[in-house]
Amino acid sequence: MFATYKPVKEDARIFNLKKNIYFSGMKPEDKPNILIVDDIEPNVILLETTLRHLNANIIRAFSAKEALEKIRGKELALALIDVNMPEMSGIELVSRILRDKGRNLVPIIFITAYPCKESELEKIYETGIIDYIFKPIEPRLLISKVKIFLELNRQKRKVLSSEKLYRMLLNASPEGIIIMDTSGAIREISNVASGIFKLSSREDYTGTNIITLFPPDEHARLQEVIKSTMEQGHVLNVVFLITCSDQTRLESEISFKLIRDSNEKPRALMAVIRDISQRRMIQQQMINDERLESIEEIATGISCELNQPLRLISLGLENLLVEISKNKSVDPEYFHNKAKQIFNSIARITYVIDHIKIFSSVNRNLTFIEFDIHNAIRNSISMIENQFANAGILLTTNFDKNIQVISGDPEKFEQVILNLLLNSQDAIEEKMRIVKTEFKWLVDLKTYRNKTHIKIEVMDNGMGFKSADLDKIMLPFHTTKKAEKYTGLGLSISFAIIKEMNGIIDIESEYSRWTRIRITLPRECKA
């Protein structure tokens, strides 16, 4: 029996036991802590001996005061405490341990040599202890109880570790994260999300509905998005206005994700929030910069395009006046040549102005109707087929019969096709001047489709574009042809028309070999 040992004597068996415990080389910091408190030292040692095979760190104390000193700042997996001790009883010690708000709840097993009175039992249970056992202790019973509590502690530490990792990942995300239950009640708010909403205290919003973080005019749309998330599993990159705690509004981009448990039942909702207000400002600045750049380019282009014919007109008139002042008359042939130069220059100015008007008004004047795409292409071909034949260029077509009607402005669409065919002719004629040998000059025009889009492709074996020109080819007044013949607005106008039809134009080319221009339109074009 533990109570028969006297603390003043210590035989060799107990000394060796102490030595094995103290010098075993184990790392106590990696193990759960078990507190043993008894004012009789042999009782403490024998309890320690009984538990020596368990993977735990034993904290020994021979008084309540010593126990409080030794456990300061340490978490306990279990405490084995003698009820009757001088100065401070075990019951009072347990009360102090459990009152420590900085400590997790500690399971307590009281050890006593005497049956407790009913009043003592009431005090014991009031402390919130788990169990109590009598001396002398049955080792197997003690080990069994302690093993249960150590396993519970291991599970608790595992949960705490997972929770710590979860919170660390939550707060490490560069984007704001809000976790809600399926009704929208907030459960967690990450540090970044708290910063986006300018929350002084996240706890104030825990339990409230996420709708409180949005202005009233966004409530209906938010509820619709949450409903869609519950049905589809996720909704990505929806732009919302959010209300910050200081009542300012920010533009944000939010993605919602439904979180399911292992049984695929909806468990929670996650909102990933990005503050895009700064990005919007940068984008708007870039748009403004591009507009200014385009205006500068257009102004420069107009200046160059108009100055040359104006100089020719001025020079021609000046020569005529000089000739008249010298001879009092003008040779008819001389007059005819000068007049022809003047009229050509005027025609050039008219041509440039007309193209500028088309370019500036293309987005405003498009009239959307349904039309036969192949009839429109045939109309464009009819305007150029004689020029192709005279230049020795073979034009082939391959139309997808399953494509019939598209929506857009047929006249503007015909203009696009005509521009592309004229570009192919110019590219081939430029190559003709370089390649003197016999060569088969080809332009192939075809249409085809996939599930979502209609494609129109024009390919020629002309001069092609240099890679440095491909990025600039859609810019206003940029041309790789002779400046006196072309404005450099053809592809820009074509690009604007197709963009208004919700389509795109792609250009592929290998210099001196070929060019492929592909128009991609949605199968259902909308104005």
Report what the structure shows.
The chain has 527 residues and is an alpha/beta fold. It has helices at residues 12-22, 41-50, 64-70, 90-99, 118-126, 139-172, 191-196, 219-232, 277-327, 332-365, 373-382, 385-391, 410-434, 467-470, 490-500, and strands at 33-37, 57-61, 78-82, 108-112, 131-134, 176-180, 186-189, 234-243, 249-260, 266-275, 369-372, 393-398, 405-408, 441-449, 453-460, 504-510, 514-522. The strands form 4 sheets. A 5-stranded parallel sheet has the order 2-1-3-4-5, with helices on both faces. Strands 7-6-10-9-8 form a 5-stranded antiparallel sheet. A hairpin with a 5-residue loop joins β9 and β10 (266-275). α9 packs antiparallel against α10, α10 runs parallel beside α15 (490-500) and α11 (373-382) packs across α13. The longest helix has 51 residues, at 277-327. The radius of gyration is 44 Å and the shape is rod-shaped.
Question: How many strands, which pairing sense, and closed or not: the largest β-sheet?
Answer: 5 strands, parallel
- Look at the structure and give the mean pLDDT: 78
What Rg is obtained from the alpha carbons, in whole angstroms?
Answer: 44 Å
Number of H/I helices: 15
Q: Could you estimate the helical fraction of the residues in percent?
A: 40-55%
Going across the biggest sheet, name each strand in turn: 2-1-3-4-5
Low-confidence stretches at least 5 residues in length (pLDDT < 50)? 1-26, 361-365, 483-488
Global morphology: rod-shaped
Separation, N- and C-terminal Cα atoms: 96 Å
How many E-type strands?
A: 17
Beta content: 15-25%
Helix-strand makeup class: alpha/beta
